Amino acid sequence: MAMPPATVLIADDHPLFRAALADLIRRTPEFELVGAVEALDPALSLLAERPCDLALLDLRMPGMTDLSVLSALRAKHPDTKLALISGNLDSEAVSGGLKNGIVGFLPKSFDPPVILAAIRLILSGAIYVPHELAALASEPESSPSAASSDEPSTLTEREREILTMMVAGASHKEIARSLGLAEITIKLHAQRIVKKLGVRNRAAAIAKAVRDQLVDPTI
């Protein structure tokens, strides 16, 4: 006897991505789309009417004010697996999401076959987090004082290496190629560098590195 299709709910406020993901689910016979909505509140309404096997929730959408809402959602619908989808590659969101009950994190940049493979893994009972995000999410967090911009020594050896190449003018793609890493990994390291240096973006991190002589670009 054939297994019934797994039911999937999508909540994402980006209309093009939501429509594309909904179409992908509809065209996959082993899945059934329960609904595709633009915010957390209508998602909650749908779940109240019909609990589903998996809810794919946008990290940045109306109603998703804090990752703690995931714990409440998990408590109310314990049989529904929760996974975050996001265009923001944020290892802290992965860590926070896992602590609040998610069992998956899917970057929106993934190709459709990878998204489907990840969903299948989640529905099979596994926790799915991309390797690059999992590695960074599992790193121990520095204390606030240690992570301040006055303590550049908190940069790891790899982060210093990447910052040096950034100062030398290399793009994320060029750094990834040089180090034999995925570009997404370099982007995630760059995010952590920006945070540790207490600046707003990559350009400011480079400027601070040059001003404070944090790296030697001639190496």
UniProtKB/TrEMBL annotation:
PROSITE patterns associated with the record: HTH_LUXR_2, RESPONSE_REGULATORY
Domain Response regulatory: 7-123
Domain HTH luxR-type: 148-213
One example GO MF annotation: DNA binding
Domain of life assignment: Bacteria
Listed InterPro entries: CheY-like_superfamily, EvgA-like, NreC/VraR/RcsB-like_REC, Sig_transdc_resp-reg_C-effctor, Sig_transdc_resp-reg_receiver, Tscrpt_reg_LuxR_C
Entry protein name: DNA-binding response regulator
Source organism per UniProt: Hypericibacter terrae
